[in-house]
Amino acid sequence: MHDTIRSVMFMKFFVETLGCKVNAYESEYIKEKFLEEGFSLAHELKEADVVVINTCTVTNQADAKSRKMIRHARREAPGACLIVCGCSAENHKEKLIDLDIDILIGNKDKSKIVLLAASFLQNKQKFVKFYDLRNTTFEDMQIHNFEGHTRGFVKIQDGCNNFCAYCIIPFMRGNIRSKDFDVAVSEVNCLVNNGYKEIVLTGIHTGSYGDGLDYDLTDLIREISKNPRLERIRISSIEITELDDKFIGELKINEKICSHFHVPLQSGADHVLKLMNRKYDIAGYKRMVENIRSVRENVSITTDLIVGFPEESDDDFQETLVNLRDIGFSKIHTFPYSLRDGTKAATLKQVGDLQKKQRVKEVLALSDELEHAYYEKFIGQRVRILVEDGVSGFTDNYIKVVLDKKCDSNTLVDVVIESVTSDNCVNGHVL
């Protein structure tokens, strides 16, 4: 491998990432591998000898953005080795063949991209390969840094077995699979020893970590918490069905777990949840949120919500608004339903675009109101933030605080929350 790569050393590469935190992690791994093998990072597309585009297919807009980026890359770097990977590649491989792509893969073999690039640069032979991702193993990747971030992300899981009616991702990412426990612990400790005070555990379905094995997410959290230099453990997203008694018990005693959980709701109406093939009802969701708040009083609960799902009636939407307020989210990430071919929801009666647009507007207004009310509770309180850019940072419950004086990045400082502006900007006085 190294002999192949040495012959193309000192060439430049460029990586473009679309979509989720898992893609961001995988792209960071790809960057590390290029740098380790002697390539240098191109600051502009036109400088690159190799261009990697890690695509997203979560919505039609994501697909369109991915295709646009592919065409742009080919125009800007006509002589470069163009590599396209990720979910949109997995979903639309036949449509992408004609876009003058040199290496086309999906969500497997990303760890081999540097070798594939080196091979192409030598022999100019195009390469296309895809796998059956419903029957595959975890593709191991480990990173040592996360460039431009004060938080270190660790991908511990891949795939999803839920098959929600609106979602194509189980087909694009494959079956649930997990990073080896000891490998995950080693990667976390490496990042912490390299200066990262906060670790974000991420995956396509993070809470399913260890499914079918003799360990789970709580076991991993307990183990990495033993590192005295690790200050915070954050979970990128977790399903309400995975917040079990074992996890709640750990949350009660482990202060390193951040007081912020992003727990997708998707709809606040039981009728729509059933159509979506979600695995809970509103009453169960509310009970679990109450359990979390019973051990973390000021915890921030944020969520994802799809509005205008097929067959969502006006009554369903009004029920959703009532339940959103009752649950008291601190932020609601809202998306209009986007039809995905190949999903069950695509066969149902669709809601009109104008209705979807109006419903999004109403939920966003409610989200702003709930967010402002949540932030105001902390006025006058002393909090600790992790400084990100010298002038702002985040509390453990994910409130972004603008500082009244400059502080060193990647340091923890104590701040008193002084005010919340009308646009939900939180200002703090550094102690």
Write the layout of secondary structure elements.
Blueprint: H1 2-6, E1 12-17, H2 21-36, E2 40-41, E3 50-55, H3 60-76, E4 81-86, H4 87-91, H5 93-96, E5 103-105, H6 113-123, E6 127-129, E7 151-158, H7 169-173, E8 177-178, H8 181-193, E9 198-203, H9 217-224, E10 232-235, H10 245-253, E11 260-262, H11 270-276, H12 282-295, E12 300-307, H13 314-327, E13 331-336, H14 353-376, E14 382-387, E15 392-395, E16 400-403, E17 412-420, E18 426-430
Parallel strand pairs: 1-2, 1-3, 3-4, 4-5, 5-6, 7-9, 9-10, 11-12, 12-13, 16-18
Antiparallel strand pairs: 7-8, 14-15, 14-17, 15-16, 17-18
Which labels suit this protein?
globular; about 425 residues; 14 helices; Rossmann fold; alpha/beta; about 35% helix
Describe the structure concisely for a colleague.
With 431 residues, this protein is an alpha/beta fold. Helices cover 35% and strands 21% of the residues. It has helices spanning 2-6, 21-36, 60-76, 87-91, 93-96, 113-123, 169-173, 181-193, 217-224, 245-253, 270-276, 282-295, 314-327, 353-376, and strands spanning 12-17, 40-41, 50-55, 81-86, 103-105, 127-129, 151-158, 177-178, 198-203, 232-235, 260-262, 300-307, 331-336, 382-387, 392-395, 400-403, 412-420, 426-430.
